Amino acid sequence: MTATQAGAGRVRASDAEREQMATILRAAMAEGRLDLAEGEERLAKAYAATYRDELRGLVTDLPDGGRRALAETPEAKAFARTALRRHFGGVLVIGAILVGLWVLSGVGFFWPVIPLAFLFLGLAKHAAWHRHGGYRHHGDWRGRGDWRAPAEYRGHGPRGRGYRDEW
Fold this sequence. Notes:
This is DUF1707 domain-containing protein. Keywords: Membrane, Transmembrane, Transmembrane helix. Pfam families: DUF1707. Residues 11-63 form the DUF1707 domain. This protein is an all-alpha fold and 167 residues long. It has two domains: 12-71, no CATH class; 74-153, no CATH class. It has seven helices and no strands. Residues 135-167 have low confidence and may be disordered.
């Protein structure tokens, strides 16, 4: 079998993916799920991995693929707090603009109550999501990422129904 046949249909892993896997493994070691020797062995395999399926195999025996341990790191918690503060600040700014428009319009009915209700419901849902284990951020805890997952991760959401939680 040639090298091209061995890699047919396989996707190469990027440096960022290897580094994120190493972060997951370090978090699992800190949580006590992996001992030092096994953790170091898996870290070496993560950095030596060429393909994504090699990375996937390193965390298959960890709960939720090790992502729960990653979510419990101080960096991830700080990122979640920062994201929630940004959301709160955005809601306040939009709320102030809506109230200002209402004052300028001179309409008796306080119409901004309708969009404000939706804004605060979204903020409450965001806060509850982080409080109850909403650790599936599409991107990474260093602030790089997008509000949506890359094409190969897209599905219907974290509740199942077609969600592909792959590397």
